[in-house]
Amino acid sequence: MISMGRSLAIALRIVRQVRRDHRSLALIIVAPVVVMSLVGFSLFERREILDNVAPALLAVFAFFFVFILTGVSFLRERAQGTLERLLTTPVSRADILLGYLLGFLLFATVQTLVILLFTVWILQVEYRGDLWQVMVLLLTVTVVGVNLGIFISTFARNEFQVVQFIPLVLAPQIFLSGLILPVEELPGLFQAASSVLPLTYAVEGLREIMLRGGGLGDVVRELAVLLAFAVGLLVLASATVRRRG
After folding, report:
1. How many other β-carbons are positioned within 10 Å of the β-carbon of residue 185?
2. Distance CA 82, CA 52 (A)
3. Residue 178 to residues 25, 92, 96, 170, 232: CA-CA distances in angstroms?
4. Distance (Å, rounded) from C-alpha 161 to C-alpha 157?
5. 127 near 210, Cβ under 8 Å?
């Protein structure tokens, strides 16, 4: 049985801890703006290209930075022994993971909002759909990123090892999601691999809304797949935490 009171207490502790960590705050706000600036302003004079790749960039950067933030922060919880102490209390693993998810999700939401508003207001990317619908899809992507960060961090012993997972976990998704080449132009084997990666559905959903003027009703499949990934990763994280506990 999940106790929302216990989960919220854990989430509030995570919020207070991250707020005191200047490196994490920089990763939340400064890093996405810097990277988005480098890409966006390099294409600023080529508006058609920038407008076309902006949805994919939003998905990739939101997913990437949330994964790093969550993976490193959750690893610190383990390294400091906080997670192990929680596992010895009557608090259930479901309470613990839900609490961590809610705590990290708050900062992931702030980070995603910063990336989206910077892209629309500063880079002046044109879009057709409603921004609130774009934000809903991006938040779904961040939930996947948070849960992936929690899951992957259970296999790392230090922050450097979390970073080492990027070529294995994130790089294939970036290359196969349609950011560089449309998925339909990839070789058949790569298309099959792309169909089982969450970032592919995030990119396609954002393109449907931002480039074609669709709504959430047009991306039900993408939302459903992303939510399935989020739930599956949380279940895997729970099983991994149980073994280590």
Report:
1. 10
2. 44
3. 30, 40, 35, 13, 23
4. 7
5. yes
Are 207 and 55 in contact by the 8 Å Cβ rule? The answer is: yes
Distance CA 58, CA 27 (A): 16
- Cα gap 20→211, rounded to integer Å: 39
Tally of domains in the chain: 1
CB 7, CB 99: distance < 8 Å? yes
How much is the CA Rg of the chain, to the nearest whole Å? 18
pLDDT in tens, 166-189: 888 899 999 999 988 889 999 999
Q: What values do phi and psi take at 198, rounded to 5?
A: -65, -35
* pLDDT 10s digits, 42-63: 998 899 999 999 999 999 999 9
Instruction: State the residue range of the domain holding 229.
Output: 4-244
Structure-token pair, residue 214: 């669709």
| Of 31, 11, 9, the residue nearest 22 (C-alpha) | 31
Q: What does the pLDDT average to over 13-17?
A: 91
